[in-house]
Description:
The protein is an alpha+beta fold.
Amino acid sequence: xxxxxxxxxxxxxxxxxxxxxxxxxxxxxxxxxxxxxxxxxxxxxxxxxxxxxxxxxxxxxxxxxxxxxxxxxxxxxxxxxxxxxxxxxxxxxxxxxxxxxxxxxxxxxxxxxxxxxxxxxxxxxxxxxxxxxxxxxxxx
Length: 140
């Protein structure tokens, strides 16, 4: 009887985990000048969305209006929402003044918590703004 109850409990946990809904996040990508001089080098806009299924994060988005072609894009981890931090993953980005970003990432449990707390953001860098052209915090 105990083994039947244990098997039933394990089966319920598997079904519960499998039916847990995906979590959705979104962001608006916008220029955030670091200093006054950067205002002449950065421009553009965009949007991105992300879906968290378990620990798998799928990111997709688009951007337009950069003053120079995008060079790379990253998912960054900040100490808090609005506070810059280090890159934790590379994203695929179009090397143009408009295009798309995308990624499929396996997050650690720590990064899942950072995402849920609004501490992860997308940053697109460009030729004229290698330290960041467009940024956006992933929020529910």
